[in-house]
Amino acid sequence: MSVNLLDYEGFKARILKDASRFYSDADKVEIKSIVKNNGVRLDGLSITENGSNIAPAIYLNRFYDDYKEGRSLDDIIRTVVEMYEQNRAEKCFDVGLFCDFERIKDNLAIRLINYERNKDMLSHTPHRKFVDLAVVYMAVLNHTSYGNASILVNEEVRKLWKVGDDELHAAALAGAMATQRPVIRRLTEYLSSFMGGEYVENEMMVLTNESGLYGASVMVYKDLLKEVSEGLESNLFIIPSSIHEIIVLPAKSLYGAGWLKDMVHSVNETVLAASDVLSDSLYIYKADDDSVTMVD
Predict the structure, then answer these.
(1) Cβ(218)–Cβ(224) under 8 Å?
(2) What is the number of other CB atoms lying within 10 angstroms of the CB of residue 171?
């Protein structure tokens, strides 16, 4: 590392110093270590303004990668400030809303995550096992241009609400299906919309939700896989592309299960961020019994 380049601790200290100066009137400016999906720990800059009880976290780890590749500190700080300004809390969060299940239940949603990679968190979090995955529940507070401001429903919260696992699951699934409706697109169209260019047509379809965030959860939406299977007149291979989407294709496809499993593992190892990995498994949906199982 160049002698003129800050190490990560020095980089965080500089960001914190500049943010504290820029938001000198804030109640608190700090960097918190936050555990994300799959046990990945990230450092988030948090700015809590006077009179507010909620603050967005702006994750700094990827900015340090940009810095090491030559991006200036001034440019990074400008982006951090811009992100905060676009996502700053406009008012205090109504704690009473969160404490009352009847008031919050329409704001519940689900996320689909890897069971083994999140086992410690799941030990104190209500969840439902689904093959080698787990369905967890979120209270979505508001939508921003950088993601959803949301709170994971842990066991303490479930007990506060005095609801059972089945009622919680049903409410969160209904909320997700109502507010995060499924989107089905051909893989070629999906890739073109993100990266441009043209791609050779194939049988693969992308399933996600309208926001594109945590869209792999549509895998457990009632009747969605059944409808896709009926449309393709085939059982389905399901590729866990990431926590944000899945890819499905006819199980009678020319692509063999072995090749698909190798592809899943390769993408997880070389392309995805560790926090975005859903699973190394390949799944099959069978229409005759409406089931999803892992492919051996």
Answers:
(1) yes
(2) 22
Q: How far is CA 123 from CA 126, 132, 137, 217, 245, in A?
A: 8, 15, 14, 20, 25
In angstroms, the CA 291 to CA 240 distance is 16
Number of H helices, E strands in the chain: 11, 13
* Contact by Cβ (8 Å): 263, 240: no
Helix (H/G/I), strand (E/B), else coil: 170:
helix
Tokens matching residue 267: 């993408």
Scan for tokens 């299977």, then name that residue: 229
145 has a pLDDT exceeding 60: no
**Across residues 254-266, what is the average pLDDT?**
91
Q: Based on C-alpha coordinates, what's the Rg of the chain?
A: 21
Looking at residue 282, the DSSP 8-state letter turns out to be -
Q: Which residues pair with 283 in a beta bridge?
A: 238, 294
Per DSSP, the residues of 207-262 read EEETT-SSGGGGGGSTTHHHHHHHHHTS-EEEEEEETTEEEEEETTSSS-HHHHHH
